[in-house]
Specification:
The chain is of the alpha/beta class. It contains six helices and nine strands; from the N terminus they run E-H-E-E-H-E-H-E-H-E-E-E-E-H-H. The protein has a single domain, classed as Rossmann fold (3-Layer(aba) Sandwich), CATH 3.40.50.880. It has a nine-stranded mixed sheet with strand order 2-1-3-4-9-8-7-5-6, with helices on both faces. A hairpin with a 2-residue loop joins strand 8 and strand 9. It is globular. The two termini are about 30 Å apart.
Length: about 240
């Protein structure tokens, strides 16, 4: 498959999600939105992954490229291209879908318990996760599920995941790696709820098992995307045969 990775800076890459894409032999294309340039048309991709960033989804006055990303994600939704948005990427997906996005009741930075909803437990992507798990988080904003979407997971603070058609939004960082956590702490130590040394020690202790869940989640998404692509290809072949 041809997979697009949408990123927002050097310290917020696709982490283990990109590792899974490349290990699966898929073609990976990267678009660092703040750096400029453009993605191809949404229909050119078999799957899209949109990741986090230090900016917020309502800071258009500071980041003029947010509107262009929203337009692209709206096109992804319209074309039915499978999509996973993580943190800022999920918030931008919610914005493109017309759902509420704004400051969370409280920031979640570090490890916070997440619980799948019944819809989440039955979902082909989120359902690979345990019904309850502690997820790595780093966000001050949050999204609501669109009216025609399904809420898949929650924490005590906010919605943690939703599905809209073939698009999934995640508030927690299932993609994050140990080096990424260290980079984020170096960039924003004042945001931490505990001393940096303690925060990093806990992250280093937990990250390997967390990455196993992240890889499982991305693998399930790619498998779901491939099933949809196969169905579209079969439908297209059938349609052409009927016309002939």
């Amino acid at each position: 498959m041809h997979v697009l990775s949408v990123t927002h800076g050097a310290s917020v890459p696709g982490g283990v999600f990109e590792e899974v894409v490349e290990a699966g032999g898929h073609r990976l294309e990267r678009w660092d939105v703040p750096a400029g340039g453009n993605a191809g048309p949404a229909a050119a991709y078999d799957a899209v992954l949109a990741f986090g960033g230090s900016m917020h989804p309502d800071e258009d006055d500071r980041h003029g490229w947010l509107a262009a990303e929203e337009d692209f994600l709206r096109e992804v939704l319209a074309e039915g291209v499978p999509l996973v948005g993580v943190c800022l990427g999920g918030q931008m997906l919610a914005r493109a879908a017309g759902a509420r996005v704004g400051r969370a009741p409280a920031p979640e930075i570090g490890w916070h318990e997440v619980e799948l909803t019944p819809a989440g437990r039955a979902d082909p992507v989120l359902g690979v996760l345990p019904p309850r798990f502690e997820a790595f988080q780093w966000h001050e904003y949050a999204f609501a599920a669109p009216p025609d979407g399904a809420e898949l997971a929650r924490s005590d603070v906010c919605v943690q995941a939703f599905r809209l058609g073939r698009a999934w939004a995640l508030q927690f960082h299932a993609e994050v790696t140990g080096p990424m956590v260290h980079d984020w702490v170096a960039e924003g130590p004042d945001a931490l709820p505990v001393p940096a040394v303690d925060f990093l020690a806990e992250a280093d202790r937990r990250i390997e098992s967390w990455n196993e869940l992240g890889r499982a989640l991305c693998t399930a998404f790619l498998e779901e995307a491939a099933r949809g692509d196969a169905h579209r290809a079969t439908s297209s072949t059938t349609s052409l045969a009927a016309e002939a």
